[in-house]
């Protein structure tokens, strides 16, 4: 699964076969396409295209080439366009001191104005910077604070990459990284963490090898991901996972504008969403990339995580619920102390049954014994076992703690049995999981029932 985080479907290069271009992208595994406006007429067009095509979202703004044509009326209409449901970013905006289609002072003035407008609209910013690295960074710093945004087709060096990442920006790369063997961009990619990188085509421009010289299209974003995987000496799947997750974190796409639920009803229980952070990156994880469960949007950035009082304020009639579950789309035990405080408060309010769904790594995460603290406040624990041995677990769940993780899960199950009335192990029924072996381990060695999860 990939995201083309920057393309130009509105341009005339595609007017006769836009449908086919989008279909080819979907067939190539591109889940979402962000088509980017560069002036007011094109911003109108990207809004129309996004409205007509489910996988397509859009960004609006005035490119530095067109800065000379910006007016009060332009900005008034851009503000109106920003209200359209599939507008998820503002840009591309910035400075282009290479072609100089607009005077430098005009570019600087309009860039500054649009930074302020994007912030007022609460939209992430897409930056265009060509031959104006220091000026671009200086303006961003002078406006103060940190940003949500991305440097499209990043062309700076390692030092600049550190500066813009410190400001909150992601770095996005195009097919140009496939053009040579020893490139500045290659050094930046090797240095930058994957959780700060996105991929794009900038189609119809910057066509990657092996199609260089032809018109570019979003389906070719895979070649960019493959080159990044080569440079970082990792798998294409790893690059796909991170770049897709990064794009969803920044643009949110189908969840744009939604607030993450702190508590939410699901089936017959009430679930508590404490965090989206997790110590594992499981291949089967249902949260990736949209963080939705039915009608509920669940992605919490760390600075959005609820306090104990926030959670308790959301639960008005504790005894009305058959069960209250600590779950969400993160690992709740990362916030162990808050979780235990909430559970104790809910018990005092008359909670009938409190369950914890966990990966079983709490004691490894916090480096201290914790199971005893569940006594009297947690009624049931479901631990994600998922594999019959440490090797299979590492391959399937990608734990941050490496080889230690699997044995910590087994130990936690054993400790939980001493203090919690009901302990269950669970396994996700995905391909290549040896279900009979996992069942034997759970029931015969660990002495707990096994629940299969689809």
Summary tags:
454 residues; alpha/beta; TIM Barrel; 2 domains; eight-stranded parallel β-sheet; seven-stranded mixed β-sheet
Protein described:
It is a single chain. With 454 residues, this protein is α/β, with parallel strands linked by helices. The chain folds into two domains: 2-255, TIM Barrel; 263-453, Aldolase class I (TIM Barrel). The chain is 37% helix and 18% strand. The protein has helices at residues 18-27, 40-52, 72-81, 104-121, 133-143, 158-166, 184-191, 221-232, 236-251, 308-314, 336-348, 362-366, 390-397, 404-419, 435-446; strands spanning 2-7, 30-36, 56-60, 87-96, 125-130, 149-151, 169-173, 197-199, 263-266, 269-272, 292-293, 296-297, 323-326, 354-358, 380-384, 422-428, 450-453. The strands form three sheets. The chain has an eight-stranded parallel beta sheet. Strands 9-10-13-14-15-16-17 form a seven-stranded mixed beta sheet. Strands 11-12 form a two-stranded antiparallel ribbon. Strand 1 (2-7), helix 1 and strand 2 form a beta-alpha-beta unit. Helix 2 (40-52) packs parallel to helix 3 (72-81) and helix 8 (221-232) crosses helix 9. It is elongated and about 75 Å long.
